[in-house]
Specification:
The chain has 590 residues and is α+β, with helices and mostly antiparallel strands. Helix content is 18%, strand content 31%. The chain is built from ten helices and 31 strands. Strand 8, helix 6 and strand 9 form a beta-alpha-beta unit. The radius of gyration is 25 Å and the shape is globular.
């Protein structure tokens, strides 16, 4: 059991302690690989690991809490402890993290009058219910109770969102009520406006800064803010950005390893540091976030490689060794180790066994609900992924125009199983011309939620409600009588591949992969358009041929010796009879 205090220095058992931390998100790394990543952090010479805690994974349905299996937070923390690492937890309701809705659960959007990230009593009530369950798990993990957790975050970059101090005080009271005894902190941009809005100085909550360069200038601003409030606190960069995230259709962002090492060294000579990220990992499933840029939102890719010190697999990069050398130069007394490397599987080929159109099996792969007007995905309890809307329309003229009014994010419009148009945010609402050729015509609209924004003012925008929000018009009138199908990818075992495959429509393609010795691999998706990949029941995430990535990372832990099943759900009508699994990620020339 230890003590940890924030005085003029960080004090561990009463002695000065420089925090040298790296971020590893347990929810972006498979549990079998947690030890590997944490060991490599220790090998770097660092003493602490930091992780966010995503509310939307631990309470996917309101009132039902889960802290097991892939999101067993306590297990992750205890592995860190076994390796001699301390832990910083960031359990704030909002985490940003380039994560879907910034970690907020999508079911909150059904409470249309709740203002998130505010002192709205209805929002605080939802947070309080979550915290009661969450802190049952993390309360015993605190350093003064025999665990490794030395600090916890109050709120995340709130100074870039609001200035509702009552909200921050509510969170503070809830954390103390639930047994938090370690020091609390906030993390914001180092400049005064962000610090002033986002901190809670009256409660002695440590104010830290977020930046990725110019440490002298940023720490000077942070120190000046401390002194303005008569605080003699240690300086810490809670997010030292060593790389950056990536968005669909844009080039991969890289940072020079030597330049990074010099900047890390400069920061450590002044204060403490948390590298964001040490190991980025993967946005498995539908958990990627989205950047808000004016009227256009830009979803982030499945890979969260982040150009970090460990690559997406968890293996050391040149950045790792460059920073490791700098640590040894500055602190030669710190023990450093040879990092671990994971096995990569030899290239393999998987063969197509069966294929079937979504329209042919929609009843067995979804949950059906009817309503007079289309409802949003949240109203239909379909928080992520895809929603299919279907109805019948009569033939009134040889050419008709339709409009999908106010929908998010990406729309495939089909008439009698023909893809008439695909629309994205900026096109949605414009006229769709089609030629009904039957007395009664089948209209189908597939809507994809491509990820809710994770940062900025749009957290509160109506566009975060996905699916069709207002309705669909034919000529000048709204169409009624809708069958709505919430596609459930946990039901792929119920797909009947003997049903019809319809060219040019969204479809499921089932492949078999024979494996001898398992290991990490990358599935080559260059021949496909857009969709998701599911291997042995695990949703690896989204792919899209706009790049920059044209492959998905496959952790070796989800593969097995013998026959492995790969199911690809593809929406653009592009497919291949064979798929390759390669030793490295594949990128598109941008």
């Amino acid at each position: 059991m230890h003590t940890f205090e924030v005085k003029e220095d960080f004090l561990l058992d009463g002695k000065p302690f420089k925090i040298m931390s790296g971020a590893i998100h347990y929810f972006r790394v498979m549990p079998n690989d947690w030890y590997h990543s944490l060991y490599n952090l220790k090998a770097l010479g660092f003493n602490t690991v930091e992780t966010y805690i995503p509310w939307n994974l631990h309470e996917q349905e309101e009132g039902r809490f889960d802290f097991t299996d892939e999101i067993d937070l306590a297990k992750f923390v205890n592995i860190a402890k076994e390796l001699g690492l301390f832990v910083i937890l960031r359990p704030s309701p909002y985490i940003c993290a380039e994560w879907e809705f910034g970690g907020l659960p999508a079911w909150l959007l059904n409470y249309r009058d709740i203002r998130v990230r505010s002192s709205d009593p209805r929002f605080i009530e939802k947070v309080a219910n979550y915290y009661q369950a969450l802190f049952e798990i993390i309360r015993p993990l605190q350093v003064d109770r025999g665990g490794p957790v030395i600090m916890m975050q109050l709120e995340n970059e709130y100074g870039s969102y609001g200035e509702d101090k009552e909200y921050l005080r509510n969170l503070y009271d809830l954390m103390l009520k639930n047994g938090v005894t370690v020091p609390l902190f906030t993390s914001d941009g180092a400049w005064e406006q962000a610090q002033t809005a986002g901190t809670l100085m009256e409660k002695n909550v440590l104010a830290t800064g977020n930046f990725g360069s110019k440490s002298k200038e940023n720490f000077a601003q942070l120190k000046q803010f401390h002194e303005k409030h008569e605080k003699k606190w240690p300086l810490m960069c809670m997010e030292f950005w060593d790389g950056w995230f990536n968005r669909w259709g844009e080039e991969i962002i890289k940072r020079d390893p030597k330049e990074l090492a010099e900047e890390v060294g400069e920061a450590l000579e002044i204060g403490s540091i948390n590298l964001y990220m040490f190991h980025g990992g993967t946005n498995f499933g539908f958990m990627n976030g989205c950047s808000a840029r004016g009227q256009k939102d830009l979803p982030q890719i499945t890979s969260y490689d982040y150009d970090a010190l460990l690559d997406e697999q968890g293996n050391p990069t040149e950045k790792f060794f460059s920073v490791q050398r700098k640590i040894h130069e500055l602190f030669p007394e710190i023990e450093q180790l040879e990092p671990l490397r994971k096995n990569v599987m030899e290239p393999k080929v998987a063969s197509l066994k069966e294929k079937v159109s979504l329209f042919s099996v929609i009843e067995s792969i979804s949950r059906h609900q009817w309503s007079k007007y289309p409802e949003t995905m949240e109203q239909l309890q379909q928080n992520y992924g895809y929603q299919l809307y279907q109805t019948k329309v009569p033939k009134s003229t040889t050419e008709e125009y339709f409009r999908v009014i106010d929908a998010s994010d990406r729309v495939h419009f089909f008439l009698n199983n023909e893809n008439i148009v695909t629309q994205y945010r900026e096109e949605i609402g414009s006229k769709i011309f089609a030629k009904p050729d039957k007395e009664e015509n089948h209209l189908a609209i597939l809507v994809e939620n491509m990820g809710r924004v994770n940062y900025g003012h749009k957290l509160f925008a109506d566009t975060q409600r996905k699916g069709i929000r207002s309705g669909v018009m034919s000529d000048l009138h709204f169409i009624c009588e809708w069958d709505q199908y919430s596609i459930d990818f946990t039901k792929i075992d119920f797909i009947d591949y003997t049903q019809t495959w319809i060219e040019g429509t969204p479809a499921f393609y089932r492949y078999e992969l024979i494996v001898g010795n398992t290991g990490d691999t990358f599935i080559d998706l260059q021949e496909f358009g857009k969709g998701v990949v599911i291997i042995n029941g695990v949703n690896l995430g989204r792919f899209w041929n706009v790049g920059p990535t044209l492959s998905l990372y496959v952790p070796g832990s989800i593969l097995k010796e013998g026959v492995n099943e790969i199911v690809i759900f593809e929406t653009e009508g592009k497919w291949s009879s064979k798929i390759r699994l390669e030793e490295q990620a594949i990128y598109k020339d941008m």
